[in-house]
Amino acid sequence: METMIAEADTAVDGYTVLEDSPRPEGVLAKERLDPVVAAARDGDPEAVQALLRLIKPTVVRYCRARIGGRDLSYLSADDVAQEVCLAVLKVLPSYQDRGGSFLYLVRAIAANKVADAFRSVARDRSKPVPELPDRPLGGNEPENHVLELDLGARLARLLALLPPLHQDILSLRIIVGLSANETAEALGISAGNVRITQFRALTKLRGMIGEF
């Protein structure tokens, strides 16, 4: 278990977890994640710590991909990721392994939390929702910065036009960096389906870019 634990910089409900850290290939595969989940579910504090360290980088990247740099009623993508981790901890004691992947549960919770964040904005449209990146402006090239903002905003709008499954697959595969097998486990579909859908989503996205 010690090999799964690294230096931490963020706390979640008494546990410290990483925001952004390198993830060894395949570390979220079911056969490697299941023993950690089982030990964490049984109350092993070290296992809970290890589980949070394993899933937090993925959750953060997923939320950032779906929300971007927008503040949703003062709730940032990282705030939503924090809520996801808290929700995972809450359901962990009652989690039962029925042959599926724990990643499926994590992704479902993350998707629900992101949807809740967008719904909270829809209920209060009096609050402005800025379309700004979550990194400070650097350098003395305002023209390039404006171009980057415009390109990022256009890409986000185009992604939002894709079907939800296409959005999830592109987010998990390209932005989060999951393998096809890990993405399949997170979405409850086959790896072959992930690859086919990813190809179709990218093809559709390229066509949409050409139209704009």
Task: Report on this structure.
- There is one protein chain.
- With 212 residues, the protein is mostly helical.
- 63% of the residues lie in helices and 3% in strands.
- It has a two-stranded antiparallel ribbon.
- Mean pLDDT is 76; it is low at 1-13, 15-22, 126-140 and 142-150.
- Keywords: DNA-binding, Sigma factor, Transcription, Transcription regulation.
- It holds the Pfam family Sigma70_r2.
Brief descriptors of the model:
212 residues; mainly alpha
Mean pLDDT: 76
Distance between the termini: 50 Å
Number of helices: 8
Question: What is the helical fraction, as a range of percent?
Answer: 55-70%
Total number of strands:
2
User: What portion of residues belong to β-strands?
Assistant: under 5%
Q: Give me the secondary-structure category.
A: mainly alpha
How does the overall form come out from the CA principal axes? globular
For the largest beta-sheet, the strand count, sense and barrel status come to:
2 strands, antiparallel
Assembly state of the chains shown: single chain
Uncertain residue ranges: 1-13, 15-22, 126-140, 142-150
Protein name: RNA polymerase sigma factor SigD
Pfam families: Sigma70_r2, Sigma70_r4
Keywords: DNA-binding, Sigma factor, Transcription, Transcription regulation
Domain RNA polymerase sigma-70 region: 55-123, 158-206
